[in-house]
Design goal:
By secondary structure, the protein is α+β, with helices and mostly antiparallel strands. The protein has helices at residues 54-60, 64-87, and strands at residues 2-8, 18-27, 36-44, 96-97, 100-101. Strand 2 and strand 3 (36-44) form a beta hairpin.
Length: 104
């Protein structure tokens, strides 16, 4: 079973972006036993144009700096992926093609 939790930055009724996603995978368990955590996931989500409100920081402890760091890591990973993608480009040269020496 997977339990997912979203934290929202409730700026207004019209604009409440997600700022954190958390999930826990637990082993199915009998009703009277404690659950066994198999794995956990947590990430911050940059709220775009908005800012994390002081009210939300007070409730959740999530700050604008937390979500900014997430955005910086995301951009760094995107740059690394692009660099790796470019490194995978293959340029090949062969002096001979179909037994014809191109240097002659």
């Amino acid at each position: 079973m997977v339990i997912v939790d979203f934290e929202y930055n409730a700026v207004s009724k019209e604009f409440s972006p997600v700022i954190e996603i958390g999930a826990v995978k637990i082993k199915n368990y009998p009703v009277n036993d404690c659950p066994v955590i198999l794995s956990e996931f947590q990430t911050y989500v940059y709220p775009g144009e908005g800012r994390v409100s002081k009210r939300i920081t007070g409730l959740t402890g999530i700050t604008m700096e937390d979500v900014r760091r997430r955005l910086k890591r995301k951009r760094r990973r995107e740059r690394q992926r692009e660099k790796k993608r470019k490194q995978k480009e293959l340029i090949a040269y062969s002096k001979t093609y179909n037994n014809i020496n191109v240097d002659e």
